[in-house]
Amino acid sequence: EKAPPPPRRTPTPSPARSESQKNLSDYEGELSRSPSRPKKRRAAPSGSPERVPPTQFEDYEPAGDGSGWYVYKKTAKWKFHPETGLYFHLKTQVYYTPKESDNRFFRRIDDDDDPLVKKMKQSEEMRRAISKTEFVKFEVEGAQGEDGSARAEEPAPAPKAPEKEEDTRMDGRVNKWDSEKGFGFIMPAGKEEGGEVGKGLFVHRKFIVGSTPTNPINLKEGVKVSFKQGTQDGKPCALEVLMLGADGKPLPIHAGAQTLEEKKKSYHVSAESLGLRVHCESWPGLKKTLQDRYVMDEPLEELGVYFAVLDGHGGTQVADMVKEKLHKNVLQQMRQKQVQPASRDEKIKLAIKEAFLQTDKEILALAERKKFELVGSTCVSVILHGNPKLGTALRLVVSNLGDSRAVLCRAGQAVPASEDHRPTRIDEKKRIERVGGLVLQVRGAWRVATSTNPNSMNKAARREYQGLAMTRSFGDLHFKRPIGLAIAEPEVRIVPLSDKDLFIVLATDGVYDVLSNQEVIDLAMRHWREPEEAAKNIVRSAYKRGSEDNLTVLVVQFGGTS
After folding, report:
1. How far is Cα 286 from Cα 551, in angstroms, rounded to an integer?
2. Distances, alpha carbon 414 to alpha carbons 128, 410, 532, in Å
3. What is the C-alpha separation between 536 and 282, in angstroms, rounded?
């Protein structure tokens, strides 16, 4: 027999609570429905942890609405405004900005009257005005073609700086100007308002020569101006704007900035200004193709000079990209971290590491699309950092990824400036095994091992392994996803340059496989003041010793006389 159903219980109404006893959740529905909801953001509950926004710029992408905001790609919960440095948490509607004392910590902004929030809103308003403006398109000879289309395909990590479309200056008059918002329009000479040019050519205060955030310059309506035409975010604008006097010459208000810019450039350094003697020798050796690459005396403006040696494997695509991108990312990160010639070691190391990781992300994103997942490259680089023109001492900033090596000659003795990243290093082996990777000996050589077909249904196919001779590298997608066996974080050493330091040698493993550090230094010492002969002597000796790899040697001799 079936048991009778249990008696139905009637819910008892909960006791009424007073207004002071209601929880915040009781009001959430009312607040969302109320048309007069206050603009002030709700404060976080006491005791709740402060949110820390993700700060890697490469993890953000443009919002797509032309507002100037970037959206966090992984969760879309954060937005970043590069012009002001503001971070915005979408769920709580709260702004954050790095603290001036320590940019690892963030200041919460709850007030819409904060200067940074005001500046951001002005920027958004300016961008909206630009998007609604009918711009005139001036035809420029040579503005289109293969070169331009090739550049357009490359994704940019941040909005590009305005590009000059022509070097010749143009004349015109200020048609409209808003001093409060800091932008207006210039009517080119020979054009009329309302015709093909609309209001005229857009101009922002920051493109006026001599205008700075602390000392802004405003244009005056009707004043004659001289300018160059360029583009910003793909739209025409006026650059290097100068107001002209009755005599046709620039007004004195612009003169100070031109002098300041020239003064800034006078502090730039180069290999020649630092008294360096440099040469790189690169041979294919016994191999049919040369996959090594190098970068020689690339100036970093007033921050120093950059050199690098790269050893590609599986192809040249990754080494070519590192050669093209890394030094640019280094300078970009140094600017973002506000590195100066006399900055602390920690700040310099952080900028270098961020530049390496940023470069690797760009490479991996392209490797998957262009199908060079098995291609990679080592990198050993040195920056002669400092500026005698500013009275700061020179330092060697040595960064290493893989098994290429840097060796310093100090009073004739070899001093290792980097340490190889090989599977035989105890700390590297432990790091790989800690994340579930394998280090195996294959035909007498130790390799980082990963499955060739990790997703195969066939057990035998999953047991087919591929090996990597180094534990850190650029590229090598299969060794980084889904598990980071090989990493792109460099080891960075900073060495103050002394009178006893004569030169530094950067070379690929094809050299150090057959020559010791001291042998390399001794071979280079025979050709002091002749960097070309020094580099050739090392390469020849490695070839005669039977090296089977590509051979690349870069010698940087300092300005010593003894």
Report:
1. 9
2. 61, 7, 20
3. 9
CA dist 232 to 127, 395, 402, Å?
A: 11, 38, 40
- Number of domain units in the chain: 3
Q: E strands of 157-249, at which residues? A: 163-164, 170-178, 183-188, 201-204, 224-232, 235-243
CA distances from 237 to 34, 133, 173, 202, 260 (A): 44, 11, 14, 5, 24
pLDDT of residue 454 exceeding 70, the answer is no
Same domain, 291 and 249: no
* Residue 32 is assigned to a structural domain of this protein: no
Looking at the predicted structure, is the pLDDT value of residue 101 above 80?
Answer: no
Residue 33 pLDDT class (50, 70, 90 cuts): very low
> 395 — phi, psi (to 5°)?
-130, 150
Per DSSP, what are the bridge partners of residue 108?
Answer: 96
CB 304 within 8 A of CB 273: no
Cα–Cα nearest to 106, from 41, 56, 53: 53
Query: What are residue 263's DSSP bridge partners?
Result: none
What pLDDT score does 27 carry?
37
pLDDT greater at residue 125 or residue 216: 216
Q: Which of 110-114, 182-186, 218-222, 384-388 has the lowest mean pLDDT?
A: 110-114
| Short-list 280, 324, 305, CA closest to 508 | 280
For the segment 293-311, the average pLDDT, to the nearest whole number, is 95
Tell me the three state secondary structure of residue 449.
strand
Structural domain span for residue 475: 277-422+469-557
How far, in whole angstroms, is CA 334 from its chain's centroid? Answer: 9
Q: Which CATH number goes with the domain that contains 402?
A: 3.60.40.10
Element (H, E) at 492: strand 491-496
Q: Is 59 left (phi over 0), alpha (psi -120 to 50) or beta?
A: alpha
More confident residue, 458 or 13: 458
For residue 39, which amino acid is it?
A: K
Residue 466 has φ and ψ, to the nearest 5°, of -120, 145
The Cα 558–Cα 560 span in angstroms is 6
Report pLDDT digits (tens) over 121-174: 877 776 665 555 443 333 333 333 333 333 333 444 444 445 444 468 899 999
Cα separations (Å) of 407 from 141, 191, 349, 416, 554? 50, 64, 19, 5, 11
Residue 480 carries which DSSP code? T
315 and 345 in a single domain? The answer is yes
- Which domain-ending residue is among 210, 236, 266? 266
Q: What are phi and psi of 509, to 5 degrees?
A: -70, -20
Q: pLDDT by residue (tens digit) across 392-409?
A: 999 999 999 999 999 999
**Judgement on whether residues 538 and 486 belong to the same structural domain of the protein:** yes
